């Protein structure tokens, strides 16, 4: 899978796992700050995203502080997945 | 309105099975947080808990609780409740009077039977004997039936402030003439459900928790139960009286489902309103039994709220590093500890503390000492922003 | 004395916007599922995590608290809170063998979530509590509200009762014999002489204070009892009426919690006899659930306000021309009982 496909897939997975009602993948830009005003995500969502990374990409984050560095935007998440992934996606 | 006196106490925690055992352990700075032995979970041996090392079957035999469907949560409650009513010398006829109320608190209820609940709720086996024991009300209903309690019976669940609210509700029943005496408190046992829940929030510490320490890294779960008998002044003329409940307040932080606001409006208002009810100025407080869970969020916010209310923050300590966070039981357990502070005019050390939180610089009580104590404020803050404080006073 | 100033109700019937108690939604597979109103008051960002109990609670609450003067307390009765989320989380524990689990179900499953979400959404930092005592969860919320009003007569409080049917509590209660095994309809629920009732869910909310002026109903008195002997219920009801009704005052209506469970008929029969007036019943509209009594209070307010009672709710007697005094009796599974005395 190329990076653009990965980013699209990631957006779909985020929308599904956080149940972002009324938001479509194209509404989330690659550099939309995930925990900013636009999406209104909070600390529980960051934990949900950590689970998403483990269940879908086999990447385990044990420290929520480490999570905060990865979960900035779609770009940082996709980079992190490419560097660490253990599952075929 | 009627003054509310405490005439009986009962408790079971990982520190001991009675008020005396708990007091001795607190004085000695003992920690009851250990590796799990009784709960089957993959976290046994990896994360420590304030587990009571008595098997459920043993508790059943000790307490002669042979009815079917009795859960560990109910057994812990039964143990502590029996102590409290014996301590207050409540006769069977007093207990069955319509003037005696019972207000319980629990957040786990029968969900300590996580695996049985999974099977019953998914219809995966023939029915178990616990079908009417899973909900929160089941504990109080069991105890009502066992003791034939005759007045108002209730169960409160406001997460970690549940039993502080049970105490408050019971006191208000007396003040408003709905009861003359109330048995109030709470119970929770360690459940796979809650331990995985707190783990999913990444707030369980892999070691013994360090309330108010700069390097604290989460809480430990514990289990236990505590009950107090509260009586209207007029009904306990010739009785021994441990302390008076002089203030209480319930507020909401209205900020986030699972964390407190940075300025701690909920905790601040809970403490402030409690002092207002008692008509006391902050400098009268001799000791604060802090909520102090050892999470990054709670301890910093609670510290800020104390700094907001007090020009000079009084002596304070958390007992969460002795017994873990006992959730729905914690408010009642800490009420009993506050009563012990007053009865024995002494304070107990906050274990696990090394360095103060940088932004607040508050240092809790670090060693046992005798101290003149007239007023103890006890805090309980929970998920959903539910904050409550209670004030206990020497009479 | 508690004065009710406005009410709202979400149930399986048309009780929310355009109230219609004549055309009934049918029982399906022995469940009466609540019809959830659309609400544009609550943003998607807030709604996205909520289970049905929380959504029903917050929608019913916001429909009566908006633009009102400040609430001094939010007092909710719910036996189970977010049961669906609770078991979803439990299932995750088993399926993922206690691995990394998503916290949302856990946070949403806490029983105090309904009251705290209402507090959060209305930025209300005052008294906030959740009573969870099964079939008396709402009644204890009522007692709490009555005490608050006695303590602060001029303040406004939100009082409510909420519970949801989840697949899981349905399964547990079905195994426990609370629901019928044979399929029933709204119009034959009381005729089939078997154990169990039909499952229900809903939310009823009340804006209450100590001010009589402009109130639509008065909750004069409440009593709760834990007992299984119908004679105890009978003697308590006689005492309750004797101490709260004025000399010569009669009940205009009796709203019974009869639910079609033949094992519980002894309680409704004996209370009906003591009430000695026109008897109404409502569980063919709402189904049975631990906080159904919150909906019974809503029905009482509705009858008093509109001076009308739908024929399908009348069991015996005729509908009086004036509705001044009503008695509500409920019991949950024969062990928890309550009386409420409601007035114009």
The gist of it:
Chain B is an alpha/beta fold and 395 residues long.
Quick tags:
heterotrimer; A: 89 residues; mainly alpha; Non-ribosomal Peptide Synthetase Peptidyl Carrier Protein, Chain A; 4 helices; C: Peroxisomal Thiolase, Chain A, domain 1; Peroxisomal Thiolase, Chain A, domain 1; two-stranded parallel sheet
Explain what you see:
- The complex is a heterotrimer of chains A (89), B (395) and C (344).
- Chain A has 89 residues and is mainly α.
- Chain A has one domain (22-84): ACP-like (Non-ribosomal Peptide Synthetase Peptidyl Carrier Protein, Chain A), CATH 1.10.1200.
- Chain A has helices at residues 3-17, 43-57, 64-70, 74-84.
- The radius of gyration of chain A is 12 Å and the shape is globular.
- In chain A, 26% of the residues are buried.
- Chain B is α/β, with parallel strands linked by helices and 395 residues long.
- Chain B contains 12 helices and 12 strands.
- Chain B has helices spanning 19-27, 56-62, 72-87, 92-95, 114-121, 137-147, 162-175, 192-200, 265-278, 296-309, 320-323, 330-344, and strands spanning 4-12, 100-105, 153-156, 181-188, 224-232, 243-252, 287-289, 315-317, 346-347, 369-370, 375-381, 386-393.
- Chain B has a 10-stranded mixed sheet with strand order 3-2-4-5-1-6-12-11-7-8, sandwiched between helices. In chain B, strands 9-10 form a two-stranded antiparallel sheet.
- The radius of gyration of chain B is 19 Å and the shape is globular.
- The model of chain B has no long low-confidence stretch (mean pLDDT 96).
- Chain C is an alpha/beta fold.
- Chain C folds into 2 domains: 2-209, Thiolase/Chalcone synthase (Peroxisomal Thiolase, Chain A, domain 1, 3-Layer(aba) Sandwich); 217-343, Thiolase/Chalcone synthase (Peroxisomal Thiolase, Chain A, domain 1), CATH 3.40.47.
- Chain C has 11 helices and 13 strands.
- Chain C has helices at residues 44-47, 52-65, 83-95, 103-109, 113-121, 137-151, 167-175, 230-244, 265-275, 283-286, 292-306, and strands at 2-10, 31-32, 71-77, 127-131, 156-163, 199-200, 202-209, 217-226, 253-256, 278-281, 314-316, 325-332, 336-343.
- An 11-stranded mixed sheet of chain C has the order 4-3-5-7-1-8-13-12-9-10-11, with helices on both faces. Chain C has a two-stranded parallel sheet with strand order 2-6.
- In chain C, helix 2 (52-65) crosses helix 5 (113-121).
- The longest helix of chain C is centred in the middle third of the chain and has 15 residues, at 137-151.
- The two termini of chain C are 12 Å apart.
- The mean pLDDT of chain C is 95.
- The interface between B and C is large, with 65 and 68 residues.
